Structure formats: structure tokens, C-alpha cells
């Protein structure tokens, strides 16, 4: 069984809109629905858990019905930060799926999930117990001396850009979050499942990424998303 946890619990303050960014409409459809449709239409995904902003559960269920998202089995409330939302999803699934099942975690505001990206992250995780979508970094990275200057850089050949989707064997995921909560490791507002797992000592494995897999956080990202949609038509 392969289950996707789609995280859509944020408030989206940087988007400067009155509603959370995952519910903003693009060409008449909420951003979150574009995201979920990628999982709905992929043959390797069996079911979907949506973790949404508290108070938006009923609205999301209406969207699920409207867009016939039959793989969505559950909609639950998220936490105050992303890691709390992911943990809510993990804890919710404890009595619903097997420890050997594969769980894919994805940001609800990354609406373009190429089929090959989702396939590779699932299959890599099933071979190696986990996988994170990743791309080489093609810019130069400099370390700040202060806010005005630098005198050191990181060799870009030694780093990768890691994003969602990410996939994990479920028992590994449960152990990770239980340990993180017990030891207060990797549960900050800048943490994610991948960073938490590394802090706990796990090795992560790279899967294919895509430049189209943008994260919509600012108004300019909406323009890029709309342009990508037009190119795909």
C-alpha cells in the first residue's frame, strides 16, 4: 500500500492574500487541487491523506467531492508549523496502514508533480527504505561574513537541492517522529522530515527531481506557475 500525505496547513503570509495560498484559485481551480490531482492520477498511489489548515476541513471535503478526488480517504487538521502537520499525519496513520507500507510526503503548494518524479521517489524508497527528490545546485553559494560581505564559498558540486515529494517506509517514519518528539530533535519551524531524519542519524537517498516542481510562496511564484500551466496546454 502506498499512501500520500499532502501537507496544506500553512497560512501563507508571504503571499499577501486574505486566504491561505494553498486555496488561492488559478484558472478557476485551487492550487491544492492541482497538487492532489497529481497523486489522484498516478498509478503508484493508492490513497491520500490531506493535512489542512485547522477550520478548513469541511471546505476541503467539498473540493474533494467537486473534483472527484476518489483517492482522498481522510482530511485532518494540521499544526502550527509544518513539522507538527506532518507528525499529525504520521500519528493518524498508525492504526490504518502497515509498517512496511510506503508513505509519500508532499507540500500542498508544490502543484506540479511530474509522473516520473513521483514514480522514482516511490520506487527508490521501496528499494532503499527512503528517498528524497533532489536536483544538483547550479548557482554559487557563498557564506556570509556579515550582511555586507563574504570571503568563503561552498563547492556547488558537493550539495544538492532537496524538495518534496519524499518517501519513507512507514515504520521508519514512525520511529523517526517518535524519537524526534521524545528528544526534541528536528521539530522547529525550519525543519522538515528530511532534515529531522538526518539529525537523527539516518542516511537519505536521492531520487529524481524537476525544475517545474516549484514551491508557491510569493506572488512571483504564482506567475511562474501560470506560465508553466500554459506551456503544458
TrEMBL record:
GO-annotated molecular function: 2-C-methyl-D-erythritol 4-phosphate cytidylyltransferase activity
Listed GO CC annotations: cytosol
Organism per entry: Weissella confusa (Lactobacillus confusus)
Pfam families: IspD
The UniProt record lists the keyword Electron transport: no
UniProt KW keywords: Nucleotidyltransferase, Transferase
Classification via PANTHER family: D-RIBITOL-5-PHOSPHATE CYTIDYLYLTRANSFERASE
Protein name as annotated: 2-C-methyl-D-erythritol 4-phosphate cytidylyltransferase
UniProt xrefs under CDD domains: CDP-ME_synthetase
Domain of life: Bacteria
